[in-house]
Amino acid sequence: VRPAVDLLFESAAKYYGEQCVAVVMSGSLYDGDKGLQKIKKAGGTTLVEDPKEAQFKGMTESAVATGCVDYILPIQELGPKVIQLCAAHRK
Fold first, then answer.
1. Which CA distances in Å does 53 have to 9, 27, 64, 70?
2. pLDDT for position 15
3. Strand order of the sheet with strand 21-24?
4. Percent of residues, the chain, with pLDDT higher than 70
């Protein structure tokens, strides 16, 4: 069994590289942290829901522990930041 978010992020890193924007939100265990590292290595941008606010802190705390997170934001700020980053990639 392979964590689904890691697989998704690894594929995104491979095909979109520096244009990739990844968000890790509330969830259990550590799914997403390996894929997040690949996105960062490919030049992409990484965001995480603030673990203090997450209903389940496992994924967010694990993502932050990788040391490759660009933004740690409250959930209400994640959407606007993703929109801003995507708009910047279109230019």
1. 23, 12, 14, 18
2. 96
3. 21-24, 45-49, 71-73
4. 96
Residue 87 CA to residue 31 CA, distance in Å, equals 27
Rounded to whole angstroms, how far apart are CA atoms 48 and 66? 11
- What distance in Å separates the CA atoms of residue 72 and residue 58, rounded to the nearest whole number? 15
Give the Cβ contact number of residue 35 at 10 Å: 24
Average pLDDT, the chain: 94
Q: 9-41, pLDDT tens digit by residue? A: 999 999 999 999 999 999 989 999 999 999 999
β strands within the chain, DSSP E: 21-24, 45-49, 71-73
Q: What letter would DSSP give residue 17?
A: G
* Contact criterion met (CB below 8 Å) for 43 and 18: yes
> In sequence order, which residues have a C-beta less than 8 Å from that of residue 20 and are 6 or more positions away?
12, 13, 39, 42, 44, 45
